[in-house]
Amino acid sequence: MPKTPRDPLYYHARRAVLHANDTGISHLQRRLRIGYQHAIDLRHALRGDVLEHQADTDTWHIRAEADRHTDFLLEEKLAQAARLIGSAKALVIAAGAGMGIDSGLPDFRGDEGFLRAYPALGRQGLCFQTIASPPAFEQVPLTAWGFYGHRLNLYRATAPHAGFGVLHAWGQRMAQGCFVFTSNVDGHFQKAGFPTARVHECHGSIHRLQCTAHCSGEIWPTAHLHPQVDEAACQWQGELPHCPRCGALARPNVLMFDDRHWNDTRSQQQRMLLDMWLDSTTAPLVIEIGAGRAVPTVRNFTRRMQQRGSALVRINLREASIHNPDAIEIALGAREALERIQQHLAANIRNGSVGTSKLIPASALQQSAGASNHLKLSRCPPQHLPATQAVAPLRMITPVTPRSIRMAYRHPRPPAKQAPHIALWMLRLITSHEVLRRFVCKGDFGRDDIAYALGLDHWIDPEDRPFNPQAVRAELYQQLSKAQRACAQQPLPALLQDNVQRLAALVGLSAVDARILAFAVCLHNEPMLDETADMLEQLTTTQVIKTVAMLLDLPDAQVRQALGSQGLLARSGLVVVDRSGSGRLKSKLEMLSHTFADQMVSTDADPIHLLRGKIQPAAPGHLALTDYGHIKPTLDIVHPWLRHAQCTQRRGVNLYVHGAPGTGKTELARALAQDLGCDLFEVASEDDDGDPISPVNRLRAFRAAQSFLAQRKALLLFDEVEDVFHDSPLERGTAQSHKAWLNRMLEDNPVPTLWLSNTVAGMDAAFIRRFDMVFELPVPPRSQRARIVQAHCGDLLDAPRLARVADAEHLAPAVVARASTVAHAIEAEVGRAASASAFEHLVSHTLQAQGHRPLPRHDANRLPEVYDPAFLHADADLAALAQGIAATRSARLCLYGPPGTGKTAFGRWLAEQLDMPLLVRRASDLLSMYVGEAEKNIARAFREAEEDGALLLIDEVDSFLQDRRGAQRSWEVTQVNEMLTQMESFAGVFIASTNLMDGLDPAALRRFDLKVKLDYLHTPQAWALLHRHCAQIGLAAPCTGLQARMDRLHQLTPGDFAAVLRQRHFRPLPSADALVAALEIECALKNGGARNSIGFV
């Protein structure tokens, strides 16, 4: 780091701090030509009484009340902000929650602030993050809307404070206008007169609503909504807001915590307007107001604006910082700061100085590599100061060099002396040629904090003797010699030493590996060691190896081998060298996780615990392998293969399991581990803070787990592998970017691994071939679904309900388990019947949310109460046909004829006669808008029927078996081919029904064992069926006079009877005569029916 020029202002100010008497004050006044009170304030600031040091970030912050104690700092910042505003051509206003405090709005800072504003929610155990989240609208909708309804009323009733008007006036005088970027949802900028088209509400607006069911992308205003809220209980009164389209519950169109369904359409439109405006301006001035670090959206935006070249004025009462070299930071509330800046601006306008004086650019303020952290005082001509300070030729500039706060090391809490091994490494760094030259300068230290930590504080601004670089260097070498002797007798801290030894034994680390690991842990844990290493500046990979070798007194070759990509440290992920360019020593030596180093020095635990956040033990399973009978042929291979791999310690064992979400892939892995008697560990997809882990880091965790678990009887689970393997058209996936590395891992991993995914589509064939097995875990067949439903809710559902739920072909076990948990939980309160209905309701809505059909309200496969094959006009003996199929259990039938003649009903009847489950598929179930998907659906239907031993009935089969000679598109041919292939290979009972026999492909007709035509009813059949139905619904027997009318109904079908009988639920049929009249109307609507005479002899 280059030497920072000695600052004479610092020297004299330092003397004033050391000499607290009036002589020191007089000295400061005389040398700086400032007034007495000014000198008192300056000495007060330099002593650190108004500064706070944050050890975690090694930065200094002004306390909330500091600027009030040091008016000379505050006024200069306000004056600089005014000058900058006066010379700006465009303005960006970036506002956070602190902007509204002066209007009387709560900011919910901390749990205490939220509970003060909403004590009723505190009594219910609800925090801000809980009530301001989408699940609250599902679980406690009245309370959620009570909270948001109260906020809506509050925002409507509150007037924006005067600071909004100041900002509006500034924006109007800008040549290129202004734009507002705000995380507030209160709409107060629009209320203060800002044009709606110039406001970007990045978190949405409480004055807009959206649907919780996501029925459309519609967003609508709340103008019609007038909340009535019981404030004492924070409960909504009256009818809740609903979606005008679908009737589901509505919610505010604001971004909530863990909100995956926020409709950001309006916000994105606002962002487009902002981007277009920014493209038309050049480095607009940014004024950030009341934006904190807790929700950093606004601060991230202002940082991006700074990167584009914009100057920044930050107004924040609580979080003003003096370490930022690129901003003026003012520790005042929004209203007071804006009004006082306006006073300076008005004075500049009166003096005619607006537009003639500009703020010094941030780049010019960074005078050296060390100018980054602290408060700097610099000299400037008096004419550049406000009139009120012209007597003092001094200007305060926010960014400063570290030297400017050397007084901090006379602070009551100076840096602590270092442990022997840390001091040794620091001294080895300091006494290296490059660092020594920067650390020991001609007249002082390059870093006083490091000097203090090494016990050299007696050389920091000595008053009794001059600074002697030669003597300092000699003392450093003496300390180095002492530290080497001390470390030879005193090992590393016991806890760190024990943890390193455990890992060495577990992973097989050498002595060199263990020493490097211990050093890396200390480097990541000890701030002063890291600060000292930073004096090396940017290091290449080669320089990192040489530096580590020097610090640990090891040969370069051994360190190079230990830190190589094939070394155990890298393969285990414990210490990995970042080989992408140059960087600081700490950043170049990456550790297993961001918590790993801390755990190594603070936790005496099993080494596996050190992988927390990367690898975690899997939760116990709830299913057994017997619950996966539908993939038994696959499990008959998987189970012995995994057992063989464990017994022989075979390497490179990997299984890829794919299937729709909720089919039980994770439970299968748990069941396999339990049956094999081994531990199951899972590669985490999110860290301890709930943040997602990148695919690269997940792969590194996988590699580390292979080393950590190699000696254990264990399986490894890698879920959601789409993150790693799948590519997009515009970007290569992580696996493709690390192909050689991943291939080696797949071929040599010692711990058998199950890789789980929702799909295998899009995966490179080069990866697929490296898996021992790739198999699909489908939704269980109906028989298995019935057993799962019976196991979870057999005590709630009766047989018809159970059958109806089991008929849902896309019903995954996870859906049943979750719905069952809820239903049983509420059973005691609502009763068994309501609990059963709740279970069906939950399952049905989950299926809909997944894009599938909901549960039917009645059994679609149930036969009519009056059903007898004798009432079907078939050209074959259906009863005898059923007996023959019962003997062979195999047949391919084609039932054709007009609609309503009983083709589908015969399939249901036949399934009952054969005591077989029935699998019904219609054309709408199998067809798809995607090419190739219909073929997959056809194959899946035949496979499910075979697995279930079910009778497969495909209705409207003409959709798939049209004559290929008339095909115009390739997929029309492939669908026919797939259907024919499946028909030939299917050994069970298959029935196809169609109303259009003429257009079927000739090849398909040959593959049917029997074609049965079902035609309109014979006259005797129709008359007998009329008698049967009259008796069923309690009507008198039809008189003989009706027989003639029935004889004229030549197109009568059993389906016509069913349609008419359904009418009686809403239109009574008082007599057989009314029933016949209704049948006449049905027949008249059919083609050719108009030629029949109705009601006349």
Which strand order spans the largest sheet, edge to edge or round the barrel? 5-4-3-11-12-13
Ends: how far apart?
A: 114 Å
Main beta sheet strand tally, sense and closure = 6 strands, parallel
Rounded average pLDDT? 80
The radius of gyration over CA amounts to 40 Å
Number of strands: 29
Helix content: 40-55%
Number of helices: 49
- What best-fitting shape do the alpha-carbon axes yield? globular
Percent of residues in β-strands = 5-15%
Ranges where pLDDT stays below 50 over 5 or more residues in a row are 1-23, 48-70, 356-414, 1089-1097
Q: What structural class do you assign from the helix and strand content?
A: alpha/beta
How is this structure best described in words?
- This protein has 1097 residues and is of the alpha/beta class.
- Helix content is 46%, strand content 12%.
- It is built from 49 helices and 29 strands.
- The strands form eight sheets. It has a six-stranded parallel β-sheet, with helices on both faces.
- The model is unreliable at 1-23, 48-70, 356-414 and 1089-1097 (pLDDT under 50).
Features:
1097 residues, 6-stranded parallel beta sheet, disordered C terminus, alpha/beta
Note the topology.
Elements: H1 8-18, H2 22-32, H3 36-46, E1 51-54, E2 59-62, H4 66-69, H5 71-87, E3 91-95, H6 110-117, H7 119-123, H8 128-131, H9 134-139, H10 141-157, H11 162-173, E4 178-182, H12 188-191, E5 199-201, E6 204-211, E7 220-221, E8 229-230, E9 235-236, E10 250-254, H13 265-279, E11 285-289, H14 297-307, E12 312-315, E13 327-330, H15 334-351, H16 362-365, E14 374-379, E15 394-400, H17 420-430, H18 433-439, H19 448-453, H20 469-489, H21 494-507, H22 511-525, H23 527-534, H24 541-552, H25 556-562, H26 568-572, E16 575-577, H27 585-588, E17 589-591, H28 596-602, E18 615-617, H29 632-648, E19 654-658, H30 665-676, E20 679-683, H31 695-708, E21 714-718, H32 722-725, H33 734-737, H34 739-748, E22 753-757, H35 765-768, E23 773-776, H36 782-793, H37 799-806, H38 813-830, H39 832-849, E24 873-874, H40 878-888, E25 891-896, H41 903-914, E26 918-921, H42 923-926, H43 933-948, E27 951-954, H44 970-985, E28 989-994, H45 1002-1007, E29 1010-1015, H46 1019-1032, H47 1041-1047, H48 1054-1063, H49 1072-1084
Parallel strand pairs: 3-4, 3-11, 4-5, 11-12, 12-13, 19-22, 19-23, 20-21, 21-22, 25-28, 25-29, 26-27, 27-28
Antiparallel strand pairs: 1-2, 6-7, 6-10, 8-9, 14-15, 16-17, 18-20, 24-29
Helix pairs in contact: 1-2, 1-3, 2-3, 5-15, 11-15, 17-20, 17-23, 17-24, 21-22, 22-28, 24-25, 36-37, 36-38, 38-39, 43-44, 48-49
